[in-house]
Amino acid sequence: MAGDDQGVHLDKDIYDMAQDVGRRALARRGYLHHPRMAVAALRWFDAGKIGFALHGALPVTVFSGDAHEFGITTPPRSLIGDDVLIAAMPGDPVAIMRHYASRFAGIERIPPIAITHHGRVLLRIPMLLGHDMLSWPGVAPNELAAKENSHE
Q1: Is the dihedral of CA 25, 130, 66, 5 positive or negative?
Q2: 3-state helix/strand/coil string of 90-111
Q3: How far apart are CA 19 and CA 75, in angstroms?
């Protein structure tokens, strides 16, 4: 989450500070104390950074690709009925919102989380909030087969 695709290279101290900034931003918005709230990333390594930053305050999952351990610890299916904060990166947040819209009773863009250092924004993480997850947002079997066939 700390800017791998944004060309921002953070040293250890800045990385640690960035994690704290993200956790504080979610706490300030009241999300850390919401009883049916989770966080989703689109890549497992972003989910790992988010999970590390949250220190277990919220369940963390991965909505696309290889979920690694998150497919076991918090499979997306386990979040049905929950609200889910989605770190909408990489990619176009509007396209990501459209992609997952049918999986929720409602979905909205919320202010991004700005990771700053000495007042300078290092990274803005676009955020979505899905309300009442209705179904598991995994890759549909026909999409997976099409992807596998395209690599032959």
Answers
A1: negative
A2: CCCHHHHHHHHHHHEEEEEEEE
A3: 23
CA distance linking residue 53 with residue 48, whole number of Å: 9
Give the tokens for residue 93. Answer: 């947040």
Predicted confidence at residue 2, as pLDDT, reads 45
Q: Which residues pair with 121 in a beta bridge?
A: 116
Pull the structure tokens for residue 30.
Answer: 């009241």
Residues 135 and 78 sit within 8 Å (Cβ to Cβ): no
Q: Which residues pair with 127 in a beta bridge?
A: 87, 110
Q: How confident is the model at residue 52 (pLDDT cuts 50, 70, 90)?
A: confident
pLDDT, average across residues 19-42: 82
Report pTM.
0.75
> Looking up tokens 């990501």, which residue turns up?
96
